[in-house]
Specification:
Layout (H helix, E strand, L loop, with lengths): L5 E4 L12 E7 L5 E14 L9 E5 L5 E2 L9 H5 L25 H11 L13 H10 L2 H9 L7 H10 L5 H11 L10 H5 L5 E4 L14 E4 L1 H9 L4 E2 L4 E3 L4 E3 L9
Antiparallel strand pairs: 1-4, 2-3, 3-4, 3-5, 6-7, 8-9, 9-10
Protein backbone atom coordinates (compact mmCIF):
# COMPACT_ATOMS: atom_id res chain seq x y z
CA UNK A 1 0.00 0.00 0.00
CA UNK A 2 3.03 2.28 -0.07
CA UNK A 3 5.01 3.96 2.71
CA UNK A 4 2.97 3.77 5.91
CA UNK A 5 4.91 6.07 8.23
CA UNK A 6 3.32 4.38 11.22
CA UNK A 7 3.98 1.31 13.34
CA UNK A 8 1.60 -0.84 15.39
CA UNK A 9 2.51 -3.11 18.29
CA UNK A 10 0.89 -4.95 21.20
CA UNK A 11 3.71 -3.95 23.55
CA UNK A 12 2.91 -0.79 25.58
CA UNK A 13 6.65 -0.01 25.59
CA UNK A 14 6.08 1.42 22.11
CA UNK A 15 4.33 4.41 23.72
CA UNK A 16 7.27 5.20 26.00
CA UNK A 17 8.90 7.04 23.10
CA UNK A 18 8.53 10.83 23.13
CA UNK A 19 7.14 12.89 20.27
CA UNK A 20 10.13 14.13 18.27
CA UNK A 21 12.29 11.11 19.09
CA UNK A 22 13.28 8.43 16.57
CA UNK A 23 12.01 4.90 16.20
CA UNK A 24 14.54 2.77 14.30
CA UNK A 25 13.28 -0.26 12.38
CA UNK A 26 15.43 -3.24 11.42
CA UNK A 27 14.54 -6.05 9.03
CA UNK A 28 16.06 -8.81 6.92
CA UNK A 29 16.50 -8.39 3.18
CA UNK A 30 16.11 -11.06 0.51
CA UNK A 31 19.64 -12.40 1.01
CA UNK A 32 19.13 -12.69 4.79
CA UNK A 33 21.23 -9.68 5.74
CA UNK A 34 20.08 -7.71 8.77
CA UNK A 35 19.59 -4.15 7.53
CA UNK A 36 18.26 -0.79 8.68
CA UNK A 37 14.81 -0.23 7.16
CA UNK A 38 13.54 3.08 8.52
CA UNK A 39 13.86 5.96 10.92
CA UNK A 40 10.44 7.21 11.99
CA UNK A 41 10.58 10.59 13.72
CA UNK A 42 7.49 10.38 15.91
CA UNK A 43 4.81 13.05 15.46
CA UNK A 44 1.99 11.36 17.41
CA UNK A 45 1.09 8.37 19.59
CA UNK A 46 -2.41 6.90 19.41
CA UNK A 47 -4.37 3.82 20.45
CA UNK A 48 -6.04 1.49 17.97
CA UNK A 49 -9.43 -0.09 18.56
CA UNK A 50 -9.22 -2.99 21.02
CA UNK A 51 -9.65 -5.66 18.33
CA UNK A 52 -7.10 -4.20 15.91
CA UNK A 53 -5.11 -7.15 14.57
CA UNK A 54 -1.66 -5.54 14.76
CA UNK A 55 -1.88 -4.37 18.37
CA UNK A 56 -3.34 -1.61 20.52
CA UNK A 57 -0.42 0.84 20.34
CA UNK A 58 0.53 2.99 17.34
CA UNK A 59 3.14 5.65 16.62
CA UNK A 60 3.01 7.96 13.60
CA UNK A 61 6.12 9.19 11.83
CA UNK A 62 6.50 12.76 10.64
CA UNK A 63 5.93 12.67 6.87
CA UNK A 64 8.82 15.02 6.13
CA UNK A 65 11.46 14.06 8.71
CA UNK A 66 11.04 10.27 8.65
CA UNK A 67 13.17 8.17 6.29
CA UNK A 68 12.98 4.79 4.58
CA UNK A 69 16.28 3.23 3.47
CA UNK A 70 17.10 1.02 0.51
CA UNK A 71 17.54 -2.44 2.05
CA UNK A 72 18.72 -4.24 -1.10
CA UNK A 73 22.20 -2.74 -1.27
CA UNK A 74 22.97 -2.69 2.46
CA UNK A 75 25.62 -4.96 3.98
CA UNK A 76 24.81 -7.15 6.97
CA UNK A 77 24.72 -4.95 10.10
CA UNK A 78 24.27 -7.72 12.68
CA UNK A 79 27.49 -6.56 14.35
CA UNK A 80 26.04 -3.03 14.70
CA UNK A 81 22.78 -4.26 16.22
CA UNK A 82 24.58 -6.52 18.69
CA UNK A 83 26.74 -3.57 19.69
CA UNK A 84 23.75 -1.48 20.84
CA UNK A 85 22.75 -1.25 24.51
CA UNK A 86 19.70 -3.55 24.15
CA UNK A 87 20.66 -7.15 24.96
CA UNK A 88 20.88 -9.58 22.05
CA UNK A 89 22.43 -12.76 23.47
CA UNK A 90 20.48 -15.20 21.26
CA UNK A 91 22.68 -17.06 18.79
CA UNK A 92 20.18 -16.23 16.05
CA UNK A 93 19.72 -12.49 16.25
CA UNK A 94 16.07 -12.52 15.15
CA UNK A 95 15.08 -14.57 18.20
CA UNK A 96 16.05 -11.63 20.41
CA UNK A 97 13.36 -9.50 18.74
CA UNK A 98 10.28 -11.73 18.76
CA UNK A 99 6.86 -10.89 20.21
CA UNK A 100 6.94 -8.10 22.80
CA UNK A 101 10.74 -8.09 22.57
CA UNK A 102 10.44 -6.59 19.07
CA UNK A 103 10.27 -3.19 20.79
CA UNK A 104 13.39 -2.09 22.66
CA UNK A 105 14.52 1.13 24.34
CA UNK A 106 17.69 2.71 22.94
CA UNK A 107 20.06 5.16 24.54
CA UNK A 108 21.15 8.50 23.13
CA UNK A 109 24.51 6.91 22.26
CA UNK A 110 22.68 4.14 20.34
CA UNK A 111 20.76 6.81 18.46
CA UNK A 112 23.95 8.68 17.54
CA UNK A 113 25.56 5.44 16.30
CA UNK A 114 22.59 4.75 14.04
CA UNK A 115 22.51 8.33 12.77
CA UNK A 116 26.17 8.08 11.82
CA UNK A 117 25.55 4.81 9.99
CA UNK A 118 22.76 6.33 7.87
CA UNK A 119 25.00 9.05 6.42
CA UNK A 120 26.07 6.77 3.57
CA UNK A 121 22.77 4.94 3.08
CA UNK A 122 20.64 5.28 -0.03
CA UNK A 123 16.96 6.14 0.41
CA UNK A 124 14.15 3.88 -0.77
CA UNK A 125 12.81 5.63 -3.86
CA UNK A 126 9.44 3.83 -3.61
CA UNK A 127 8.78 5.43 -0.21
CA UNK A 128 7.53 8.70 -1.62
CA UNK A 129 4.52 10.75 -0.61
CA UNK A 130 1.44 10.87 -2.80
CA UNK A 131 -1.09 13.72 -2.59
CA UNK A 132 -3.13 11.38 -0.40
CA UNK A 133 -6.01 13.77 0.24
CA UNK A 134 -6.52 14.21 -3.51
CA UNK A 135 -6.33 10.46 -4.11
CA UNK A 136 -8.96 9.83 -1.42
CA UNK A 137 -11.27 12.45 -2.97
CA UNK A 138 -10.93 10.87 -6.42
CA UNK A 139 -11.63 7.41 -5.05
CA UNK A 140 -14.77 8.66 -3.33
CA UNK A 141 -15.92 10.31 -6.56
CA UNK A 142 -16.07 6.81 -8.11
CA UNK A 143 -14.70 8.18 -11.37
CA UNK A 144 -12.38 5.34 -12.41
CA UNK A 145 -10.82 7.29 -15.28
CA UNK A 146 -9.76 10.13 -12.98
CA UNK A 147 -8.21 7.66 -10.55
CA UNK A 148 -6.30 5.98 -13.43
CA UNK A 149 -5.13 9.34 -14.81
CA UNK A 150 -3.98 10.44 -11.36
CA UNK A 151 -1.92 7.27 -10.84
CA UNK A 152 -0.29 7.70 -14.26
CA UNK A 153 0.66 11.29 -13.38
CA UNK A 154 2.87 10.23 -10.44
CA UNK A 155 6.45 10.65 -11.76
CA UNK A 156 8.07 7.90 -9.66
CA UNK A 157 5.18 5.48 -9.99
CA UNK A 158 2.96 3.62 -7.52
CA UNK A 159 3.49 0.07 -6.24
CA UNK A 160 1.73 -2.67 -8.22
CA UNK A 161 -0.02 -3.92 -5.07
CA UNK A 162 -1.55 -0.53 -4.39
CA UNK A 163 -2.55 -0.01 -8.03
CA UNK A 164 -4.38 -3.34 -7.99
CA UNK A 165 -6.17 -2.35 -4.80
CA UNK A 166 -7.19 1.10 -6.08
CA UNK A 167 -8.38 -0.24 -9.45
CA UNK A 168 -10.25 -3.35 -8.38
CA UNK A 169 -10.37 -4.05 -4.62
CA UNK A 170 -11.05 -0.73 -2.90
CA UNK A 171 -14.66 -0.62 -1.64
CA UNK A 172 -17.17 1.64 -3.32
CA UNK A 173 -18.83 4.26 -1.16
CA UNK A 174 -22.28 3.36 0.11
CA UNK A 175 -24.31 6.60 0.04
CA UNK A 176 -26.85 5.08 2.42
CA UNK A 177 -24.26 4.98 5.22
CA UNK A 178 -23.64 8.71 4.88
CA UNK A 179 -27.39 9.34 5.10
CA UNK A 180 -27.61 7.15 8.20
CA UNK A 181 -24.81 9.13 9.83
CA UNK A 182 -26.60 12.41 9.06
CA UNK A 183 -29.73 11.01 10.69
CA UNK A 184 -27.89 9.83 13.83
CA UNK A 185 -26.35 13.27 14.47
CA UNK A 186 -29.11 15.38 12.91
CA UNK A 187 -26.53 17.05 10.66
CA UNK A 188 -24.21 18.19 13.48
CA UNK A 189 -20.43 18.07 13.34
CA UNK A 190 -19.22 15.49 15.87
CA UNK A 191 -16.18 17.62 16.73
CA UNK A 192 -17.42 21.21 17.04
CA UNK A 193 -21.18 20.47 17.12
CA UNK A 194 -21.85 23.04 14.38
CA UNK A 195 -25.43 22.55 13.18
CA UNK A 196 -26.02 23.98 9.68
CA UNK A 197 -29.65 22.83 9.74
CA UNK A 198 -30.44 25.48 12.33
CA UNK A 199 -28.88 28.34 10.36
CA UNK A 200 -29.17 27.29 6.73
CA UNK A 201 -31.82 24.58 6.69
CA UNK A 202 -29.48 22.15 4.88
CA UNK A 203 -27.21 19.24 5.90
CA UNK A 204 -23.77 20.66 5.08
CA UNK A 205 -21.63 18.40 7.29
CA UNK A 206 -19.75 15.57 5.56
CA UNK A 207 -18.93 11.96 6.35
CA UNK A 208 -15.23 11.22 6.83
CA UNK A 209 -13.53 7.81 6.81
CA UNK A 210 -11.30 7.44 9.88
CA UNK A 211 -9.20 4.89 7.99
CA UNK A 212 -9.17 6.25 4.45
CA UNK A 213 -10.55 4.03 1.69
CA UNK A 214 -7.48 4.74 -0.44
CA UNK A 215 -5.34 3.19 2.32
CA UNK A 216 -7.36 0.03 2.84
CA UNK A 217 -10.14 1.32 5.11
CA UNK A 218 -13.60 -0.23 5.09
CA UNK A 219 -16.78 1.50 4.01
CA UNK A 220 -18.76 0.76 7.15
CA UNK A 221 -20.47 2.92 9.75
CA UNK A 222 -17.81 2.15 12.40
CA UNK A 223 -15.21 3.77 10.14
CA UNK A 224 -17.17 7.04 9.73
CA UNK A 225 -17.45 10.32 11.58
CA UNK A 226 -19.62 13.30 10.60
CA UNK A 227 -17.68 16.57 10.46
CA UNK A 228 -18.16 20.13 9.22
CA UNK A 229 -16.39 21.18 5.97
CA UNK A 230 -13.66 23.04 7.89
CA UNK A 231 -12.80 20.05 10.04
CA UNK A 232 -13.05 17.71 7.04
CA UNK A 233 -10.54 19.81 5.13
CA UNK A 234 -8.20 19.98 8.14
CA UNK A 235 -8.34 16.20 8.69
CA UNK A 236 -7.37 15.55 5.08
CA UNK A 237 -4.82 18.32 4.58
CA UNK A 238 -3.02 17.60 7.88
CA UNK A 239 -3.54 13.82 7.76
CA UNK A 240 -4.60 13.86 11.43
CA UNK A 241 -4.35 10.46 13.18
CA UNK A 242 -7.33 9.20 15.19
CA UNK A 243 -6.90 7.93 18.76
CA UNK A 244 -9.47 5.32 19.79
CA UNK A 245 -8.60 5.60 23.50
CA UNK A 246 -10.22 9.03 23.81
CA UNK A 247 -11.92 9.39 20.40
CA UNK A 248 -9.80 12.33 19.31
CA UNK A 249 -7.95 13.51 16.22
CA UNK A 250 -4.35 14.54 16.83
CA UNK A 251 -3.15 17.66 15.02
CA UNK A 252 0.40 19.03 15.11
CA UNK A 253 0.02 21.19 18.23
CA UNK A 254 -3.22 19.95 19.80
CA UNK A 255 -5.93 17.31 19.68
CA UNK A 256 -9.68 17.63 19.15
CA UNK A 257 -12.06 15.03 20.54
CA UNK A 258 -15.49 13.97 19.35
CA UNK A 259 -18.05 15.91 21.38
CA UNK A 260 -20.78 13.72 19.96
CA UNK A 261 -20.63 9.93 19.73
CA UNK A 262 -23.59 7.62 19.34
CA UNK A 263 -22.27 4.99 16.93
CA UNK A 264 -18.62 4.08 17.55
CA UNK A 265 -19.37 1.90 20.58
CA UNK A 266 -16.77 3.36 22.95
Amino acid sequence: MGAGYNLNQSNPLLHSIDVGDSLWAFTKNKINNYVLAAQLVVKAKTYNSENFRYGRYRVWGDLILSKYFNVTSQPNIEYLIRGLSCKTEAQILGKSFQGHSAVRTLTLIDHQILLAYTKNLKFETRAHLLPEDRLEALLLSEDDKKVHDFIKSIPVGVSEKRIKYLYSTAPKRNAQLAKELQKIYQGCCQICQWNPLDKYGHSLCQSHHIHWLSRGGEDKLENFVLVCPNHHNALHRLDAPFDFSNLSFKFTLHEESLKLNKHLGF
